[in-house]
Amino acid sequence: MDKSFLNIFIFLFCFFQTSISYSEIELPDLGNPSDIYMSKMDEPAVGRAYYREMLKKDQVVEDALLQEYIQHLGEKLSSKVQEGDYKFNYFLVPQSTINAFALPGGFVGIHLGLILNADTESQLASVLAHEISHVTQRHISRQIGNSVPNSIQGGLVLLGAIL
């Protein structure tokens, strides 16, 4: 009886010692795979370039009252984001469809159709929160990273078909 108790005690002691030592190990930050194609620092410039292009093509609604409303609502939501690396810019798109989209670097476009068809501010806020998550989770950078291997494979298949 004493020997089995001693074996259990030794086992538990060794088990807890290793779990404590593993918890103290700090792993290095290896970065994010999406950084290969677009770094977090590049995202605002890319988003700004898309936004400016939309402005040139009159694809942004310039209504000060609506703009102030959507920016205020978006900032209430994005102020809760733990990663303060993004300065969010919300803008309206003159489309009647119920849609919204996120550009890299914190640029979020909201179609007028979404505002016109939302029954409550909460419905609009939920869509904005969804788009904010696309930005903070860097989904655009990941999509670019995921599409590059496919475009390389597609190019090789096309090249093989030509030859």
Automatic annotation (TrEMBL):
Pfam family, one: Peptidase_M48
Keywords assigned by UniProt, alphabetized: Hydrolase, Metal-binding, Metalloprotease, Protease, Zinc
Cofactor list: Zn(2+)
InterPro entries registered for this protein in UniProt: Mito/Outer_Membr_Metalloprot, Peptidase_M48
Residues annotated as domain Peptidase M48: 66-145
Gene Ontology molecular function: metal ion binding; metalloendopeptidase activity
Annotated GO CC locations: membrane
One Gene Ontology term from the biological process aspect of the record: proteolysis involved in protein catabolic process
Official protein name in the record: Peptidase M48 domain-containing protein
Organism: marine metagenome
